[in-house]
Amino acid sequence: MRIATWLLLIALLAPAVQAQQAQAQSKSEKVFRATVNDKGVQLVEIAGGGYFFDPNRIIVRVNVPVELKVRKEAGIVPHDITIDAPDAGVQIKESLGTDPKSIKLTFTKTGEYAFFCGKKPPFVKSHRERGMEGTFQVVE
Length: 140
Fold this sequence. Notes:
single chain; alpha/beta; 4-stranded mixed beta sheet; 1 helix
């Protein structure tokens, strides 16, 4: 009987521990500075899942094309990547899958622009509110 009680307790606590780990991971800043390749493009890879993006702070150059390769980690929870920066020439909302998806964009104005998961299940916090967001820092 004691073993069954322990197994039940572990099964009940595991999601809470995973949520705490995901929250802690989402709060740590992971910075990536894009460089321009020989084709004049900045390549950036982003992984999402468990209410985080990695990296979550990306530095790119203004008026230089960016190619994002985005994917989500394995799991059943759906995620997307949303960038709503029309003043900088970028508006994107793309679903994420486990296979990388290529998204091409060019920021036309310096500044900081959020990217986030726009998913919001009923009756709970949105993925963004749970920490699934990041920032593009667009520099000269």
